[in-house]
Prior knowledge:
The protein is of the alpha+beta class and 194 residues long. The chain is 16% helix and 61% strand. The strands form 2 sheets. An 8-stranded antiparallel barrel has the order 1-4-5-6-7-8-9-10. Strands 2-3 form a two-stranded antiparallel sheet.
Amino acid sequence: MTNGCFMNKSITKNIILSLLFLIISLNMVSQKSYIKDRWDVKVGYAKPIMLIFDSPFYSMEYYRHGNTNLEGNYGITESLTIGAYIGYSKLWVLDSIDVNNIIPKTYHTPFMGLKTNVHIFPLFIKHNDFRFDLYLTGKAGAYYHQDFIFEYCAGAGFAFYPWKHIGIYTEYTYGNLWLNNFYFRYGMVIKFNQ
């Protein structure tokens, strides 16, 4: 009986020590992460991938013009950032369609929203200043055209930092983005580590 009791105390002690070691290790890793507590600001341009509409009445390219945006992100864990974005675009809207007459009209359109990025490399590469960044991204927001219209998308992105704090990035997303489901975004990113 005493030997069994001794085993249970030993196992309990080892479990407690292992948990403490795990907590301390995770804390040390998150302190050395190049994502956690990092701010980044991105300025970008997105080009929609055009859709072709065919009908018995007409065939034409119909798309949302490219857009510019400004976004800011903050690293809340070693591989997760959250942020917000604002931007400007033009919408090409067909105000009147009949067999003989198609009247496109351009509207100036602001948009805004929230986003999150899940960074892949920090899960496998532990480095204080890694110059490459591969991430999955998700966005939800709205654009304004006579009313706020909800939009969302998800995709993947890649950034490269040739300089310590300045880099370039690209994102490819798919979702409910007005009439265009695919967007290719690229631009400049500046990161600020605390």
